Request: fold
Amino acid sequence: MRTHSRSRSPDLAAKRSKISHMNAPDPADHFANDLFDHNTTAKLHATYRANEPFKYAVVEKLFQDELLKKVKDECLSELSFTEKETDIYKVNQTGDLASLNYLTDAQISLLPNILTLRNALYSEKFRSFLQTVTGCGPLSGKKQDMSVNSYTKGCHLLNHDDVIGTRRVSYILYMPLPHYTLWQNDWGGSLELYPVKESPDGQLEPEPIPSKSIPPSWNQFIFFEVQPGRSFHSVEEVVVGGEGEDGRERLSISGWFHAAQEGEDGYVPELSVPETKSSREQLTSSSTTFAPYPADPEAPHPDQPLSDEHKNYLSDFLNPVYLQPRTMGALSSRFATESSLELHSFLAHPLAEVLHLRLSEVDTRDGLGPERAGRIPSHTAGTSGAWCVRGPPHKWRYCVLNPPPAVSPRTAQETPVEILRTLQDELFPSPAFRAWLAAVSRLLPLSHAAEARRFRPGLDYTLATSEEKDVRLDVVLGLTPGVRDSGTGEGSSNENSSLASALDDVKGWPAAEWGGWECYMAPHNEEDDPAIYRSGSHSKPSTSNTNDSSSNGHSHEHISGNNGASTSGSHAHSPVPSDEDQEMQDEEEDSTLLTVQPGFNRLLLVLRDERVMRFVKYVSAAAGGSRWDVCGEYEVGMIANDD
Reply:
């Protein structure tokens, strides 16, 4: 875990008697003039109801400017920010500011303006204002849920609807830096709002492309009611700021207002579960559609050598070393021990050469190559020809091939698209490849699904999903240009030792700077709070094939637990993690089963047990091009011995 400490911070985790600091002057004095005026409220209410793709409101100036400048200064000088990264976000964040209630008077004297702002936000007057604008019903004053977030270069938050627990209103107050500079649209960091459609199972899900994008501006306040299946939003990657730059960062205070709690006026216990599932509840499975193999009385058996017919077919695609009985036997033994293999130089050399050269040319043609200079492309980039976007983005977003043309794909293998289509439609479903998989894995593939995938920089990813009851054999052929394979094709994942020893000189994909890694996570206990379990923050990997990253927790701008429960491995305001914090971090690190960085011409085989989570990390806009692969999933059965 990396903690960016800007100065000495008070220990907000100290368990002291709760001290009330709520005896403040009239909170209206701290807000912008005329905010609570009847005409202002009525206008906001009207625009809130009319806004699309769901109801939201924007207050262009919320607080008195002098107060917000002081709050900004306190955030930068007195608080510590912890870098957190999971499948769904990367952000620098403080702990929950509800913890201010546990400070001593001496400690609180360091944060007077932050306390003033927090108390004003959760005051009865401002909560009444939000209720009038949104019609959301009574809001809690005692359950406070907010933190400070800094989005620097590479930070992002992917699609979700914010539905957890008693959250009723999401909000964000912007303090972009430098505060005297207008934030530019091409710097990233916009709040993106998504329209919805009905899925085949009757649930509402977001469209792949947002219909509204709101860039941050100083003292701007955006809020909306949290609604299952409606309030889908994301934060575009920030592509400026970071070490050695000019101090640009998307600084904000954000969180949630919760429904009135027991003992508060307006409290109503929830008696039923909403019919519409939240985005987190919809991430229970990948919903892969499998095609069965044709009935074959002579199903492949791992103890039988490949037939001449199968060898001849596979020799058009595979490096011949992987068709040698000795190699296949060694791979089978290793897979039986490790349940995973990474095979370098897997495709035959002629196919690999064409793909390596021409996939890069496709990115250049589509405006997704290095000439982009790290800028975020359009959501429609790369979709004008053979590719289309696959969603829904609260589960995944990437490009897949459009249906094939009338011409047989085998007649035009010189193009990269047709080679990918041939791998997808012919090699991966073929009886010959089924027999090869059976021999290497000692499992019998029963049905198959395969798709060529293109993950565009600044846009695409998959979030962590799992299968509750089924075991799957994952077969992923990595085809990402830019990582030349120096291996001979005669081994597996241990062959990259020379690359690992030279990581100090490696940039981009192998150094985990651009995302796109494939990650497998151990299942979590049902009693765990998903917001806590799915968070995490780990240092970058020490080799190209390892990286610690946790799985998805759903948040608006801040990613903390409810009412002061920190979700990271260390309390963001504590300079030194406690023993309890370190134990949580160790558990998160232990839950990472396998992480593989993007590579070219490498085949990854993984036997994935039930409830094991899997995701492809968001590909950063900094990447020099798309992340390409052909991804196969196979339902498998054990092969029974006659004896």
